[in-house]
């Protein structure tokens, strides 16, 4: 299915907007917000309690962005896209979507539950305490899935750039009208 050029412009715009929302906020959160919160607040418990709802909201935004990326990629690669580009642009958003789901639905609730059930502050528990070890394990898993989410968005960015440059490099298809037959005046 070939998109009309005006519709294609709209789809590319929506695709790029979703891509910026899938990539920008997680990078900003991981590079700026999380380190600053842990540095400024007096305990790791307070920092974690603050970041939990922020990260949950960020995951919802990523889930929506990756769903939009899947839909727009499906439309953009419907005709004429290289097979690898189509595969990357339609499968990577699914990976990013499920990474965000895992963080929000499976890991954050467990981390919050451990914080609530821990006897005292996590910071004051001994290093070998089961609650502290479990929290550390879930935090590493969340960080790993967060990295997968960012990597998926980065790869979508590169695949999108490849798709758009391939389209720009391709010669435009010009429809040439077939010459009309000359009318016959006398048919002898």
How would you characterize this protein structure?
- The chain has about 190 residues and is mostly helical.
- It has one domain.
- The protein contains 4 helices and no strands.
- Helix 1 (about 5-40) packs antiparallel against helix 4, helix 2 runs antiparallel to helix 3 (about 85-115) and helix 3 runs antiparallel to helix 4.
- The longest helix is centred in the last third of the chain and has 40 residues, at about 130-170.
- The radius of gyration is 25 Å and the shape is rod-shaped.
- The two termini are about 45 Å apart.
- The model has no long low-confidence stretch (mean pLDDT about 90).
List the helices and strands and how they pair.
Layout: H1 5-40, H2 44-76, H3 83-117, H4 130-169
Short key terms for the protein model shown above:
single chain; mainly alpha; 0% strand; 188 residues; rod-shaped
Task: Summarize this entry quickly.
The chain has 188 residues and is mostly helical. The protein has helices at 5-40, 44-76, 83-117, 130-169.
Largest sheet: none
The total strand number stands at: 0
Shape: rod-shaped
Rounded average pLDDT = 90
Give the class from helix and strand content and strand pairing.
Answer: mainly alpha
Q: Estimate the helix proportion, in percent.
A: over 70%
What is the distance, rounded to the nearest whole angstrom, between the alpha carbons of the first and last residues?
A: 47 Å
Content of β-strand: under 5%
SSE string? HHHH
Residue windows where pLDDT falls under 50 for at least 5 positions: none
Count the DSSP helices.
4
**Cα Rg:** 25 Å
How many structural domains can be distinguished in the coordinates? Answer: 1
């Amino acid at each position: 299915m070939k998109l009309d050029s005006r519709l294609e412009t709209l789809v590319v715009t929506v695709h790029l907007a979703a891509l910026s929302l899938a990539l920008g906020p997680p990078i900003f959160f991981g590079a700026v917000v999380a380190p600053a919160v842990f540095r400024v607040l007096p305990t790791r418990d307070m920092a974690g309690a603050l970041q939990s709802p922020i990260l949950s909201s960020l995951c919802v935004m990523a889930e929506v962005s990756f769903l939009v990326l899947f839909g727009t990629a499906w439309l953009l690669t419907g005709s004429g896209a290289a097979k690898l580009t189509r595969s990357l642009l339609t499968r990577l958003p699914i990976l990013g979507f499920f990474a965000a789901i895992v963080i929000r639905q499976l890991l954050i609730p467990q981390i919050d539950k451990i914080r609530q059930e821990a006897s005292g502050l996590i910071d004051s528990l001994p290093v070998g305490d089961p609650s502290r070890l479990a929290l550390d394990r879930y935090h590493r898993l969340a960080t790993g899935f967060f990295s997968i989410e960012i990597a998926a968005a980065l790869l979508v960015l590169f695949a999108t750039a490849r798709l758009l440059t391939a389209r720009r490099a391709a010669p435009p298809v010009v429809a040439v009208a077939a010459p009309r037959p000359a009318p016959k005046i006398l048919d002898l």
